[in-house]
Specification:
Elements: E1 16-17, E2 25-26, H1 32-42, H2 45-54, H3 56-66, H4 77-84, H5 88-100, H6 105-121, E3 129-133, E4 141-143, E5 147-151, H7 161-166, H8 169-172, H9 180-192, H10 203-221, H11 229-240, H12 246-251, H13 256-262
Parallel strand pairs: 3-5
Antiparallel strand pairs: 1-2, 4-5
Helix pairs in contact: 1-2, 1-5, 2-3, 6-10, 9-10, 10-11, 11-13
Length: about 260
């Protein structure tokens, strides 16, 4: 399986400090989606102004790269953006997303737990700014320059009625709230540790590259969210080579040792 990343422009970190005296930062999902929803459901122009002032790069990314409605500085873009979401189905999606994700403290807690593990094992990992948005069923996760955008409308539950019309059961299985943080981690790590010479690599090497990213995600989450024979192969390799650290595993693009072990050599 090959995951395609949307590597888009990002911005500076927006992190909420922990209690005074704590040396770190607490990750918290920025609720960009609430401003977006306010504008798209009421046409409140002040909400759009705040989107552009507080989240200029996120707004540009959403309009130009995700929805592909045109350039953000087009005088007509605000009308086009609003009109695009006036479809009754999209209005329902916006409403349902805001209702289901009125509270995201569980997501914040999972993100912090996972990044605590990652920072312990990858001390130099950049801590991203994470924000929520509604993308009209386009991309689930949008990765920028140390940013992670979560499209809430892609995580409304495997039994969400609209999903049953457009997505097979195998895809719907991961379109639920519990997969938000695993997807955030996997796409973010893939952006930080891309596969070199991707086009010239064998399919097995590509699958193992994704497998090692997902193995690290499972470790960071303390649960096997992702399962595949390639993840299992990485697991066996790491168990047999306990001197190999997480950074070394992620940075290494030579899969010959894992392949030899898979073949019993």
């Amino acid at each position: 399986m090959i995951l395609t990343l949307a590597l888009l422009a990002g911005c500076d970190f927006k992190l909420k400090p922990l209690d005074e005296g704590d040396g770190g930062h607490r990750l918290e999902v920025s609720r960009y989606d609430r401003l977006e929803s306010q504008y798209l459901t009421t046409g409140d122009f002040s909400a759009l102004q705040q989107m552009n002032m507080d989240y200029p790069i996120e707004t540009r990314t959403l309009i130009e790269d995700v929805l592909r409605l045109g350039e953000v500085n087009d005088p007509q873009i605000s009308r086009r953006f609003l009109s695009f979401f006036q479809d009754s189905t999209l209005q329902t999606i916006v409403s349902d997303a805001e209702a289901q994700f009125a509270n995201m403290e569980d997501i914040n807690a999972q993100l912090n737990g996972a990044f605590d593990w990652l920072r312990a094992n990858l001390p130099d990992i950049p801590v991203p700014m994470v924000y929520a948005q509604i993308s009209a069923l386009d991309q689930s996760i949008v990765i920028g320059n140390h940013t992670i955008g979560i499209s809430l409308d892609k995580y409304l539950g495997r039994d969400y009625p609209l999903y049953k019309k457009y997505y097979p059961e195998s895809q719907r299985a991961t379109m639920s709230r519990e997969y938000i943080v695993p997807d955030c981690l996997s796409f973010y790590l893939l952006s930080l540790y891309p596969m070199h010479d991707f086009e010239s690599r064998s399919q097995l090497e590509r699958d193992l590259h994704v497998g090692k990213i997902m193995w690290v995600c499972n470790r960071a989450l303390g649960k096997r969210f992702f399962r595949s024979p390639y993840i299992d192969a990485v697991e066996r390799y790491m168990c047999a080579n306990k001197n190999v650290g997480i950074e070394a595993l992620l940075s290494n693009n030579d899969y010959s040792n894992i392949i030899r072990q898979m073949k019993g050599r």
